[in-house]
Specification:
Blueprint lengths: L19 H9 L15 H15 L14 H8 L6 H22 L1
């Protein structure tokens, strides 16, 4: 059996994350992946998704640059979601977004 497209270079976006074909390949395996929220989130769901992503990826191990100076997939992913800073600022921005999401939920009730 061939390796799924989302795990190969053909399913990855050179600018970070997965391309549409990679997300479609992941969906066949039961994953529900959506495109990144690049700009400001437009609603509660996007606020939660972007906040969770930034906290998760900002907390992950690994460098943002390779020894030769190129950006790692981690850095490219953060940039695909609209974050250009370091990992600590990604975590703090993500926590602020999640706090905003919690406030949105309280207002709805």
């Amino acid at each position: 059996m061939a390796t799924p497209l989302w795990q190969r270079k053909a399913g990855k976006n050179p600018a970070g994350g997965l391309n549409a074909a990679g997300r479609a390949s992941a969906k066949k395996e039961g994953m529900n992946l959506k495109a990144p929220v690049k700009g400001a989130p437009s609603g509660p769901d996007e606020t939660r998704r972007k906040g969770s992503f930034l906290v998760r990826m900002g907390s992950s191990d690994g460098p943002l640059k390779k020894p030769n100076g190129e950006k790692t997939r981690l850095k490219l992913s953060l940039e695909a979601w609209g974050h250009s800073g370091d990992k600590a600022s990604a975590v703090s921005h993500g926590k602020r977004l999640l706090a905003r999401y919690q406030a949105m939920k309280k207002v709805k009730k």
